[in-house]
Amino acid sequence: MAGQPLPQMTVVRPPTNGQAIASLVLGIVGLAVLPLIPSILALVFGYISKGQIDRSGGAQEGRGMAVAGIVLGWVGIGIIVVAAAILIPVAVYTDVLN
Length: 98
Description:
Layout: H1 18-32, H2 36-55, H3 63-97
């Protein structure tokens, strides 16, 4: 048996959930460009894809991307809330002065 090649083994990885990728991308866009709509969509896609991945029993990957999208989505929402809490009173106060 000496001299015979060893059998080749290929490792097939499960596919990455597309909604998890979308969640991560939308979370990044929500922080970098437009905070409101992409952040909300990042949360929606993130929670849906995390549930799908958990139910797949290892048939899908991307849970980390889904969680990252969820975190970035909540950070984007937090930025909106803080900005509104600052800008709305300032706008009302400056309108009262004029």
